[in-house]
Amino acid sequence: MDIKQLRAFVVLAEQGNYRLAAERLCITQPALSKQIQALETLLGTRLFNRGRQGAQLTAGGQRLYPEAQTLVDRHLQFQQHALRVVQGAAGRLALGFGLSSFHLAPQLVAAFRQRFPAVAVGLEDLPSERQYQLLLQGELQVGFVRLPVSAPLRATALLSDRLVLAAPSALALRAETLMARFNTLPLLQLTPKRGRGLSDQSLRFIAAHQLTPNVVQQAGDIQTLLALVAAGIGVALLPHSVTHIVPTGIDILPLSGDATEWQVGIAWNPQQPDALRDNFIQVALATVQAP
Predict the structure, then answer these.
(1) In angstroms, what CA-CA distances link 32 with 23, 46, 61, 195?
(2) What is the pLDDT of residue 114?
(3) In the chain, where does the domain assigned CATH 3.40.190.290 lie?
(4) Which cellular component, as a GO term, is one annotated location (predicted)?
(5) DSSP code, position 171
(6) Contact between residue 182 and residue 244 where contact means Cβ atoms under 8 Å apart
(7) In whole angstroms, what is the distance from residue 54 CA to residue 233 CA?
(8) pLDDT value of position 143
């Protein structure tokens, strides 16, 4: 059964006149008659009584008309939805983000939703290393990750982050004496499995400054690490972006020198065409670059 036949049936039922229905469908009257006859043959019943009063629905036609109208409306809705999907204005967008993009990612999602309110956005906290994998597998469309990324992924930098030392306020550490006392401080670390990027960054910083850290404990997530610092268990090397979620009782001390800074950006897999993803990237870059 052709949707054109159903549409012809619905329009003729509404117009009650072959000429008016043909004009609305932008076809000739013979073409309209052919579509109606084909539909009647397929259904095995007459749908219209033809006479001086035009085309009037038969009893069977009256019973079939409501469902036919529903199907035609659904077909139109599907066409409109499909067009929005193809244009990247509808569907679902899967995003990953990390601590460094804790504030920026939601801001860019909000800007995108203003432009494309019909898009459902999923935002998941994931380590950069895991985001790389999911981008390659097609399970993420865009990731807010530590740069650089490896081919075939592509990325654009959005911001810089840097290492700081989170210390219990009770220690009353001073930034100017921090490096001299570093080796004597009980150091807390995030497990490499949970934060490979931060772990590697911390190791580069330690090596660059020829430090010998006194590691006393590891934690599986940033919140636990901060809780341990606040409890006075030790200090921790963390991204500066952690200041957004630092509880009371913790001092954030700046670090300087080599291996203290890195870039964060959005990454995607260009091998997988995706208009929805491309729209998000365009909005994100325009929002970041706006005055």
Answers:
(1) 10, 15, 16, 66
(2) 93
(3) 92-290
(4) protein-DNA complex
(5) G
(6) no
(7) 89
(8) 97
Sole residue written with tokens 């963390």? 238
pLDDT value of position 10: 92
Give the global pTM. Answer: 0.72
Residues in the chain predicted with pLDDT less than 70, given as ranges, are 53, 87-89
Please report the pLDDT score of residue 249 as a whole number. 92
Question: For residues 226 and 247, is the Cβ–Cβ distance under 8 A?
Answer: yes
CA-closest candidate to residue 251, choices 179, 190, 175: 175
Q: What is the pLDDT of residues 146-177, one digit of tens each?
A: 999 999 999 999 999 999 999 999 989 888 88
For 109-148, give the secondary structure using H, E and C.
HHHHHHHCCCEEEEEEECCHHHHHHHHHHCCCCEEEEECC
For the 92-290 domain, the top CATH level (class) is alpha beta
Give the pLDDT of residue 242: 87
DSSP label of 106: H
* Residues contacting residue 124 through CB under 8 Å, at least 6 positions apart: 94, 95, 96, 97
Residue ranges of the chain assigned to CATH 1.10.10.10: 3-87
